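Researcher: Next sequence.
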Amino acid sequence: MTLIKKAQERILELDVLRGLAAFSVLCFHYTTDYTVNYLPATPTLFQFPWGCWGVQLFFMISGFVIFMTLEKTKTLLDFVVSRFSRLYPCYWAAVILTFSAVSFFHLPGREISFHDALINTSMLQDWFGASRVDNVYWTLTVELSFYIVMGILFKTKMLKHIEILGLLWLVFMVWNIRVFLLIMHFHVPVWIKTTGLLRYGNLFFAGILFYNLKTKGSTWYRHFALLMCLGVQYIFREEINPFVVLGFFVSFYLFIYGKLSWIVNKPTVFLGTISYSLYLIHQNIGFIIMRYLYSLHLNAWLIFIIPTCCSILIASAITFGIEKPVMYLIRQNYKRLMGPQGE
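Model: Next structure:
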């Protein structure tokens, strides 16, 4: 059975977009970010500063997928088990592997204490002020914060009002940056800022709106709310290039109207399948490999291609050796434990 056939129950276009986003972040780190942090004697193969914005595409995809998941979920525990089995086994493998590699090979500026590494296993290191095992983990705190908010709305049966609540949140985001900070010099509580939802909430909300557009139909309000999400992005333009985000919105519109199937093929679906693992393990491990290759005075092509291939191989091993089998085991045991009500 081909990889595409195995994934036919998934929304392949979103899987591919997720894979492309992960690879764009990898390209950013192996070119622009590496140059900034380690000042190599010879230039990297190319510069790709825009790749860092791939994480914003992740947030939009999460808004779509998490809302879709909750609409098909019966209980909050079902949702918690689903997210835990999807995120944590793979993440723990990445934390152990990355921390061990950095500790053994000594990557300057990236070494942290064992105590902080333990806190990282919670995925809430930013909430506790701990150093990250890998800097890319900052997005996981944002994602987990979004899951918690959505879980609360699900439990309180408020998800049916999500389109109104989301618009109110957009107003609060603008109010915070334009009134609280610039005029009143008031800062919201640290725990709210740490969630990241005051910076990226519009992207999650956009994903939710696109889901409703695709499944419940087009309304003037949904298109208007999406325009508001994009408008908020222009206010935060110092954080994220709004024109890049505009491209993400266009991609989603193409997707919901069935015009994006051309991006689906075996290589891109495979990249989407390993995207989570690839995102988690590529940066510090890739930097370790690049520093060694630079010491050998290899050409720029090899210095980019070798760590990229290594990261893809490691990500594949984690995906198919840990993530998928452990996720299946957890979910099957949960169904068995819960009995008929867990079906």
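Model: The radius of gyration is 20 Å. Residues 11-31+53-337 form one domain.
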